[in-house]
Amino acid sequence: MKFECKTAELFSTVSTTARFSERRASLPVLGSILITAEGDRLLVRATNLECGVEITIPAKIQSEGIVAIPALVFAGFLGNARGNSITALLSGELFKIQSLSASASIKTIPHEDFPLLPRVSAEKSFSIKCSDLSRVIRAVSYCASLSAVKPELQSIMFYADAGKFFAVATDSFRLAEKSVPLNSGGSVPQLLVPVRSASEIMRILESQVGNVEIYYNENQLSFQTDRIYYTGRLLDGTFPNYKQIIPKSFSTESLVLLDDFGIALKSLSVFSDKFAQVSLSIDPSKKTISLTSRNPDVGEQTSTIKTTAKGDAVTISFNSRYLSDGLQSILGESVRLNSNGPGKPMLIKDASDDSFLYIAMPMNR
Amino acid sequence: MAGLLTADAPRAYPVLTLQSMTTTKELWENALVELELTISKPNFNTWFRDTHIVRVEEGSIYLGVPSQFARDWLSTKFHKDILRSLRMLEEGIRNVEYVISRGSKKAPDEVWRLPPSPNELPLEAVHQKSNLNPRFTLSSFVVGPFNELANAAAQAIIRKPGIAYNPLFIYGTTGLGKTHLIQAVGNHFRANEPSRKVYYVTSERFSMDYVSALQGGGEKVQHFKEKYRQYDLLIMDDVQFLANRDKIKEEFFHLFNFLHDNNKQLVFSSDQHPNVIQGLEDRLKSRLNAGMVVSVTPPDHQSRLAIVRQKASVHNVAFPDDVLDYLATTIEGNVRELEGALNALLIQTEMRGEALTLPEAKILLRGSGAGQKKVISVQEVVKTVSSFYGVEEGSIYEKTRRKEVVRPRQVIMYILREDFRISFPTIGEKLGGRDHTTVIHSCDKIRNDLQVDSVLSNELHQIRMTLK
Q: DSSP labels for B70-136?
């Protein structure tokens, strides 16, 4: 096996692929990437048995072959490699690479153990813009649960209905839902994608243009762009019926400028205690919201921002991160904060955009 | 399966109809033993984890695997090995199919659901689980002299959880409303502070949880610890059953320390004072004593009457006053028995459609234990206690102040007062004409000593057992 290809291209491919490798797996080969040289291209593949990826890049192949090498070692070398192109050669058990100024030889791993990437039969599929899919994942992924107690909450739930594609995530303290238009495919059943796989999908598709066709069956989800094949496991489980907890009517409704609210939260974080508690007092008669944060060891701060509000005056405490997290997905200038009083979930929405909604649960007290 | 399948062992089951789960399970386990020898350990652990036989149909084995990755890999790489190892055990197997199924992993997911915190989003109705019975409220709790201290302590806890009395330890014999009271504390706490976490558990359930966590291994034990450490108010019923279970006591000890140090309220109930519970270490006893220990005693006549009235009014049935009075007079002590007798009357009333008269009620209650109170004379108590301490019965009544007589005499006074509710002057008179202040002093002395002297509390426990 011998080939030559562009340094930058190989580096970005290998570093993307390396994120799919799993160093701590019981099977050592899972910590490696598999490089196949054939025809006029290289296939670079990695998997952690949850999800897997195969990226194709053009290369000048002098002799075909196949090799498995530790992902991070190779990515580390390429990250610091200089010069336009790289030449590589397999000699015995050593993979020898040469850049403009450096040469290295990496010990290979027997590639026979490297797993296959499952292919999903093309029966069910939907088509969506690459940028849209990565956008919905970015808009909700921070809400997914980190705890393994409820595996179904460690996922992002996708579904489509009436031409709209939804992504939902919750850790049972807050919940985010984002929708985008769907090109084709009509309705899609609930697909629970593990949040780690979803973040990888987001990163892959961010840089892609045009549409992507997503294939799925009850266990697996895959897609193929011109250069990248992705496949990943779907979680077995039922996502909670979240629609029923989205409040429809409110005792207090207020509208604030996103900047005002975001800056207030940020400046209050200096004074927040270990629970990051911030209390919001919405006063419709004075048309203000005052936000207070207090830390017995540091001090306290109150910020007052203008609002247009109607309904009852109310004071609620939140984990400030649960509020600021939701704001990052709001693109418009103003934010709705709709509440039904203490102990009830608060709805946060972009005033000019119906495609995103966020629900946060108040804190104790 | 009877032993390993050797060449000459008779085949115990017909090959093509392997229906029962145990048989297919054993078959696969034996096949795995074979496979483990031929496949490298990392490969074996990665690919054969969570596999099981789903079903057997006409010589084909359907093997459940966790994901499509595993399915593709097993069917391309290990198919021959799998088939061979299965055929070695069962010649009739023609083929192996791979299906994606996670059936083998389902069970633990359902067992380990953390009880939800009230400040979570109400994603499902089942999230509201504190294990409390909403039927038990303070408004339906009849307060009398027999339980007013316990009730006051409970009220204080509801107002200032974690601060007022922590832990609150309520003890008393069966059927006096301990469970009602402690559950009512939980229910009120939950109503007042919906965002905080309450959990009610019996010590038995706690033990079972712990045992099943131990069986589940490290992660489950961690779950167990986290589960119980998250509560703002933990109520544990019947803690006396924790005694004699060393590992569980130790876990309980750590849990207690954690919650107590974090100012979380703890409420316990038991049938005995913590000092008297056999098999409890001193470190636990002292901790249980740290907050407030209150007893509920059997209700007096007035309270019993109030309880009967309250229960009758709940059922919307009117009884003549004399019937209720009779009920309260004849059934002493246990509230549960009182309730049972009342229920008997209720059913009769409902069946007949008119109120019962006193003579009818008397006939109905004849067999229900009413009026069958065990009578123990002062002499018997004296006899039991003096023989327990090995002193002469007569010396108790004498005016001697010998040390070996004084202690038994005080114990007798204490028991007569605490267990039999005899007045101080009467006790003094019966025990050789002593002044009632002497009796009061003796009772106080024993009561105080009980707090510090575990030997004495053991002795008292044994005496009480013989008196029963």
A: HHHHIIIIIHHHHHHHHHHH-TT--EEEEEE--GGGHHHHHH--PPPPTTS---SGGG------TT-
> For the segment A50-67, what is each residue's pLDDT rounded down to a tens digit?
899 999 999 999 999 999
B5 domain residue, yes or no: no
State residue B23 phi and psi, 5-degree precision: -65, -50
Please state the residue numbers annotated as binding site of B: 175, 177-179
Q: Is residue A175 situated within a structural domain?
A: yes
Q: Is B69's CB within 8 Å of A49's CB? A: yes
Chain A nearest C-alpha distance from B124 (Å): 7
- For chain B, the maximum distance between any two Cα atoms, rounded to a whole number of angstroms, is 99
Q: Per the structure block, which two tokens stand in for A180?
A: 């985008």
From the list A49, A173, A363, the residue facing B121 with the nearest CB is A173
Chain B CB contacts of A49 under 8 Å are: 46, 67, 69-70
Tell me if B76 and A25 make a contact (CB, 8 A cut-off). no
Report in angstroms the alpha-carbon separations of A81 from A33, A59, A84, A342, B108.
18, 17, 9, 57, 49
CB A364 within 8 A of CB B119: yes
Q: Tell if the CB–CB gap between A28 and B42 is shorter than 8 Å.
A: yes
State which of B269, B295, B321 marks the end of a domain: B295
Q: How many domains does chain B have?
A: 4
Annotated binding site of B for ATP: 175, 177-179
Fill in the amino acid letter for B259: L
Q: In terms of domains, do B343 and B458 share one?
A: no
CA distance B96 to chain A (A): 19
Report chain B residues whose CB lies below 8 A from the CB of A172: 116, 120-121, 123
Tokens read off for A298: 């540091």
Whole-complex ipTM: 0.77
Residues from chain A that touch B113, judged by Cβ atoms under 8 A, are: 149-150
- In B, which residues are within 8 Å of A174 by CB distance? 121
Residues 6+ positions from A107 with CB-CB distance below 8 Å: A69, A70, A93, A94, A95
Task: Please check whether residue B126 lies inside any domain of the structure.
Answer: no
Residues B247 and B358 in one domain: no
- Tell me if B123 and A113 make a contact (CB, 8 A cut-off): no
Which residues from chain A sit within 8 angstroms of residue B196, using beta carbons? 364
| CATH number of the domain residue A41 falls in | 3.10.150.10
- Partners of residue B119 in chain A, C-beta under 8 Å: 173, 343, 361-364
B187–chain A nearest CA distance, Å: 17
pLDDT block averages, 10 residues each, chain B of length 468: 36 42 75 86 85 83 87 88 86 85 46 44 52 78 80 84 83 82 85 81 86 81 84 88 82 88 88 81 84 82 81 76 80 77 80 76 66 67 86 84 86 86 87 88 88 80 77
List the single residue in A with minimal CA-CA distance to B75: A116
Beta-carbon pairs below 8 A across chains A and B: 85
Are both B154 and B283 inside the same structural domain? yes
Identity of residue A228: I
Cα B135 from Cα A220, distance rounded (Å): 48
Q: Supply the range of the domain harboring residue B204.
A: 148-295
The conformation of residue A184, written as its DSSP 8-state character, comes to: B
Angle, helix B335-352 to helix B301-314, in steps of 10 degrees? 40
* CA torsion, ordered B409, B412, B413, B416, to nearest 10 deg: -170
Can you tell me the distance from the alpha carbon of A10 to that of A98, in angstroms, rounded to the nearest whole number?
13
CA nearest to A113 within chain B: B43
Specify the number of domains making up chain A: 3
Give the whole-angstrom CA distance, residue A282 versus residue A288.
Answer: 6
